[in-house]
Amino acid sequence: MKLSTRHLLGIKDLTKEDISLILSTAEQFKEVLQRPVKKVPSLRDVTIVNLFYENSTRTRMSFELAERRLSADTLNFTASSSSAAKGETLLDTVNNILSMKVDMVVMRHSASGAPHFLSKHIPAAIINAGDGINEHPTQALLDAFSMREKTGRLEGLKVAIIGDIMHSRVALSNIYLLGKMGAEVTVAGPPTLIPKYISESFGIRVEYNVKKALQWCDVANVLRIQLERQNQPLFSSLREYNIAYGINRRLLESLGKEIVIMHPGPINRGVELDSDVADGPFSIILNQVENGVAVRMAALYLLANRGN
Ligand code: NCD
Fold first, then answer.
1. Which of 38, 42, 43, 51 is nearest to 73 (CA)?
2. H or E stretch including 220?
3. What is the 3-state secondary structure (H, E, C) of 15-38?
4. Closest CA to 186 of 156, 217, 148, 211
């Protein structure tokens, strides 16, 4: 089977079949990653550049590891130590890298739409590793993989996405993906961090009371306050955010039921999640990180056109 798209720019462009194909391919790669030799020769003849114009720990290492596990050749580009700092344009930088015979581009950029722009001007396949406040498709795919692994389903699953919805590309990619796969979504957080018409636009619920959202859901995907994207204060203080919207053990125990806790990282401990929850028995946060490698292997493999 093959994907319906040449690039992975966003979940918005994927079909339900594309998503299912990536998730089932990732299951096979997860099995490979349990073996003593965690490497397959699938992309031995493929060269991939990781083009990071914005900070990253997990996503970047996860892509690098996925590429190496597939035996691809990899190049790493960090904007702050490159000629981008000397004024070179994005398109010039990428065309120069591609002239060295690079086949695929994994890209993170602070400008929403940067990978979409590139896809119109270069021949290489592009994977969006996060563009501004738009999308982060591989994060939503690894979130879905982890939810399904833990609960056994996506169809009919009740997922609450809690926190800074307005500035989160993880939220938007998750909303698209969960909608396509038949899950129910509630977004929760302070009114100033939830876009006004999100409910009508996406057919999802909005809840300003975090406890009510937690009582409703099977899975809570908790997000960081993206302070670097807020140029004016949208809530009073981090301490007050923690009191009104933060999740702690006491709150979870008051629900009278078990829910799954997820977070894409980086966690701001003591703000959106207290440590007793982040490291507690309901958290699958490190499973998400583990699954990220298998999911990215699947995306790279399918985009390199290696599916049957
Ligand atoms: C997220 C990102 O960069 O969009 N992190 C990640 O990729 N795991 C979320 C965040 O920065 O809060």
1. 43
2. strand 219-222
3. CHHHHHHHHHHHHHHHHHCCCCCC
4. 217
Residue nearest to atom 12 of ligand 1 (CA): 224
Give per-residue burial for 270-279: e unless 16+ CB within 10 Å, then b: ebbbbeebbe
The CATH number fitting domain 11-135+290-304, selected from 3.40.50.1100, 3.40.50.1370, 3.40.50.2000, 3.20.20.150 = 3.40.50.1370
For the chain, what is the mean pLDDT?
95
Q: Rounded to an integer, what distance in angstroms lies between the CA atom of residue 96 and that of residue 113?
A: 21
- Model pLDDT for residues 49-108, shown as the tens digit of each residue: 999 999 899 999 999 999 999 999 999 998 877 777 778 899 999 999 999 999 999 999
CA of 1 to the centre of ligand 1 (A): 30
Structural contact between residues 261 and 285, judged by C-beta atoms closer than 8 angstroms: yes
Ligand 1 centroid distance, CA of 52 (Å): 13
Distance 119 CA to ligand 1 centre (A): 22
**Rounded distance between C-alpha atoms, residue 157 and residue 35, angstroms:** 31
Compute, in angstroms, the gap from residue 256 CA to the centroid of ligand 1: 31
Q: Which atom of ligand 1 is nearest to the CA of 108?
A: 3
Mean pLDDT of 239-265: 97
Distance of alpha carbon 58 from alpha carbon 64, whole angstroms: 10
